[in-house]
């Protein structure tokens, strides 16, 4: 960890969803906190609540009960506009399906989050090329997603997530569509960014390759924290 500063605090968090005539409890009494610079993961089987918790931390959803405080803001109390602003400025997302815009070049896909910020074209270009350099794709700046491999597309997605130098990156099964070699390359890239930028990374995964890189593993079972282990730096 780079600092003792707490960037995420989860208190007595409950999330329920309507299911027919009853409610499904996806998260049930979660208490967690994350410090700046952590490289952590929520692990567990499908349906354990990993993605639901990640979505709440990313302000894409709100708690039913309890609270999630992200970078000083209580997610449940944020207006849609303020939640969007927090995501746009301080949180990066990496999804298993890449979510790249197919008609945009690599450069344009990575630049997209910066268009929401007041930044000059020259500064945007520098930020984009720096991000592509971090993930080793400066030579693919003009390529479109269809012209690249799955591993390259995921590296573009990582560049897009970190181009604004967010304080937190949330990665939901980021290696699910990748082979072993590409998975390790992606994870090493994320590890390097975590160490050099002090960015807090939080994964949702059940991929053993990802789990091998994590410094802290929080196991979720049926919407509850079953274990929370911190490992020495590897």
Molecular structure report:
This protein is an alpha/beta fold and 234 residues long. The protein has one domain: 3-Layer(aba) Sandwich (Rossmann fold). It is built from seven helices and ten strands. Strands 6-7-8-3-9-10 form a six-stranded mixed sheet, sandwiched between helices. A hairpin with a 2-residue loop joins strand 9 and strand 10. Helix 4 (121-134) packs across helix 5. It is globular. The two termini are 13 Å apart. 42% of the residues are buried.
The gyration radius over C-alpha positions equals: 17 Å
Query: What fold name goes in the CATH topology slot?
Result: Rossmann fold
Low-pLDDT runs of 5+ residues are none
Report the span from N to C terminus.
13 Å
Number of domains: 1
CATH class: Alpha Beta
**Which structural category do the helix and sheet elements fall into?**
alpha/beta
Average pLDDT works out at 91
Shape: globular
What's the CATH H-level homologous superfamily? P-loop containing nucleotide triphosphate hydrolases
Number of DSSP E strands: 10
Written as H for each helix and E for each strand, in order along the chain, the element string is EEEHEEHEHHHEHEHEE
What proportion strand? Answer: 25-35%
For the largest beta-sheet, the strand count, sense and barrel status come to: 6 strands, mixed
Give, in spatial order, the strands making up the sheet with the most strands: 6-7-8-3-9-10
Tell me the CATH architecture.
3-Layer(aba) Sandwich
Helix content: 25-40%
Keywords:
234 residues; single chain; six-stranded mixed beta sheet; 7 helices; Rossmann fold; four-stranded antiparallel beta sheet; alpha/beta
């Amino acid at each position: 960890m780079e600092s003792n500063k707490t960037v995420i605090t989860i208190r007595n968090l409950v999330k329920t969803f309507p299911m027919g005539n009853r409610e499904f409890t996806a998260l049930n009494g979660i208490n967690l906190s994350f410090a700046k610079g952590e490289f952590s993961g929520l692990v567990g089987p499908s349906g354990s609540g990993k993605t639901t918790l990640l979505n709440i931390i990313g302000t894409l959803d709100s708690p039913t009960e309890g609270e999630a405080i992200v970078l000083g803001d209580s997610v449940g109390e944020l207006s849609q506009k303020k939640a969007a602003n927090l995501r746009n400025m301080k949180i990066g997302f990496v999804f298993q399906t890449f979510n790249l815009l197919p008609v945009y070049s690599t450069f344009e896909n990575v630049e997209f989050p910066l268009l929401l910020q007041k930044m000059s074209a020259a500064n945007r270009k520098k930020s984009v090329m720096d991000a592509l350099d971090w993930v080793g794709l400066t030579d693919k700046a003009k390529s479109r997603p269809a012209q690249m491999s799955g591993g390259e597309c995921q590296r573009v997605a990582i560049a897009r997530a970190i181009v604004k130098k967010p304080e937190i990156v949330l990665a939901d099964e980021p290696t699910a569509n990748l082979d072993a070699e590409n998975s390790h390359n992606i994870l090493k890239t994320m590890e390097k960014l975590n160490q050099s930028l002090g960015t807090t990374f939080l994964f949702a995964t059940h991929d053993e390759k990802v789990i091998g890189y994590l410094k802290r593993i929080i196991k979720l079972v049926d919407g509850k924290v079953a274990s929370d282990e911190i490992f020495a730096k590897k």
